[in-house]
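Incident review: delayed structure delivery

Summary: a single-chain prediction request sat in the queue longer than the usual turnaround. Root cause was a stuck worker, restarted by the on-call engineer. No data loss occurred. The affected request and its eventual output are reproduced below so the record is complete for anyone auditing the incident later.

Affected input:
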Amino acid sequence: MVDFHRIRNPENNRYLTKLLSDFELTLPEGADDNLGVFDNGELIGCGFLKGNMLQGLAVDRSRQGEGLSASLVTELIKMAAERGITHLNVITKPSMAGLLSGIGLKLVAEAPPYASFLEYGTGNVAAYIQNLKKLAEEKPESCACLVMNCNPFTKGHRYLVEKASSESEWVWLLVVQEDLSVFPFEHRFELICEGTKDLKNVCVIPGGEYVISSVTFPSYFTRDENLAAAQGAMDAAIFAEVIAPALRVKRRFVGTEPTSKSTNLYNRALQERLPPKGIEVIEIERVAVDGTVVSASKVRESIKNDDWDEVKKMVPDSTYRYLTSPMARQAIEKIKAT
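Output delivered after worker restart:
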């Protein structure tokens, strides 16, 4: 007899580990709740709820075709509703997309062979697109775009924005909104605005949940060696299908990262997937100071080492003032504690 109930001690459940690994998944981190599918006590399916995200959906391959996946998702939707959650996102394997569409989830974007992104309920991508279209009213028909985290904003970021500004009629700068960085979003956003305010054809806006976040691709979803390529593929899919048409984007600027294999894989995914959608990808060499490529990670490393002379070389004056102010104290403490 099949029933649904919570999985106890999921971190130490070897049956759950095997079930997830059969689908090249790992245990989602920080999940709020979970639900297992059991047949006479044997775990044959699982799903997790984290915020408004359905994660780690898996049903034993030998039991597929019995409607268990649909039942599992339906039960998870009920669980979310009990928490007052009316809008859900799900990242799943492409093979699951058709099934989930059949029970009411809407396909947002596909990034084969890695994943499909679907959503359910209110507050969906249509509203996000409409908001972007309002921003783009009376803007040029062909715009450029940058997507940045800026943890914190550096002279390298400034150089990249300057290049985009000088080569474009209008530039949208979307700031990664998810707060998984050392420096909180509201501070990162303000630093970017302050550091680019003289560039009159650059508009800084929050990225929302559809721009490079754990929603667009959670790290548990694939093996480490594929993660950067998978994230890049999903970012490209959502950018091409959702963001670029709404903001009239025809060019996307990205910066190189010579020391980062994952960034190179990410950029390659964008370069492979965006041009066929009519979006040119322009890769700009990172600026260097005294022979060292400027990056946010280098800034954080210098902060950790109390090398404030080096920090000052790599960041605009506005960022330096912030870093040495009480506003940044908590973030500085986090950096030094790692």
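Verification: The radius of gyration is 22 Å.
Action items: add queue-age alerting; document worker restart procedure.
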